[in-house]
Amino acid sequence: MQLKNKIAVVTGGTSGIGRSIVERFVEQGARVVFSGRRAELGAEVAAATGATFIEADVAREEDAVRTIDAALGPYGRLDILVNNAGMGSPYTRIEKLSLDVFDGMIAVHLRGAIAHMKHAAATMRRQRSGSIINVASIGGHRVGYGSLSYSAAKAALLHATRCAAVELGEDNVRVNSISPGGIATGIFGKAMGLDSAAAEASVERVLPGLATFQPIPRPGLPEDVAATAVFLASDESSFINGEDIVIDGGLIRGRTSAEVKASGLALKRLIEGTDS
After folding, report:
1. Does any domain span residue 210?
2. Strand 52-55 to 31-36 pairing
3. I need a labelling partner for 210 at 20 to 30 A (CA). Which of 42, 78, 180, 188 fits?
4. Active site residues
């Protein structure tokens, strides 16, 4: 019960990583308020976990206020904020990039996180305690793991995390981030244009492919991210501030030995002139 009696807000808690964080936080004793745009799924998660659902769009500041107030109203404090809400965008060449799509990525991944931090900060400063966790992505660290719009938004979120950590740390409020790699959620299907229901239904089908992405030969799971979120939310991480924890099975560190061997063999054939 690492989070016993702690009050938590989780954005984007209706499915995938967010739902897993809500479930794990409740298991660890936290009282959780979570938000999302899909009311039916929100009601389902609330019924299954006992958490409180708020239908909200993180890109709207007034919705951020409503979500934070939903925790402060009944409990009078806020110990944990997880900015998890996100969405994928399709790969396009820059000359075909929709600036409306770009603006949407920034609104959800960056503006939404900053809005929630803004309206949580005063309470956490007054308490002189709190843990804020921003869910970023390896796409914010390296090129090729997301579209330009998605990657730029996540990179900005990583730096916003560091900026907020330095400022709020003076009042004993910690701000850290998590950068997932290939985690089995519906975000891949959504990035390919599927609607929410179809994208969620596609998760099982992408598991074999995700298992080949990184040195650890299995797909990343939402539970992997949720376990780290529990650690960062708990008092066990009380001296960790301004850090990013990458959860990707080693993907970000380089090519697997199988990839190196395959490219080496291809180069050998070219050198020997046996490549046809």
Report:
1. yes
2. parallel
3. 42
4. 150
Q: What is the pLDDT of residues 185-208, one digit of tens each?
A: 877 776 676 777 777 777 888 788
- Closest Cα partner for 51 from 116, 6, 105? 6
Q: What average pLDDT does the structure give for the chain?
A: 93
Give buried/exposed letters for 119-149 (b at 16+ CB in 10 A, else e): bbbebbbeeebbbbbbbbbbbbbbeebbbbb
**In a domain? residue 190:** yes
Residue 2 lies in a domain: no
Domain CATH for 178: 3.40.50.720
Query: How many domains does the chain fold into?
Result: 1
Give the domain range for residue 178: 7-272
**Helix extents (H) in the chain:** 16-27, 39-49, 61-75, 99-105, 112-127, 148-169, 187-191, 196-201, 203-210, 222-233, 257-272
Question: Closest Cα partner for 248 from 227, 226, 221?
Answer: 221
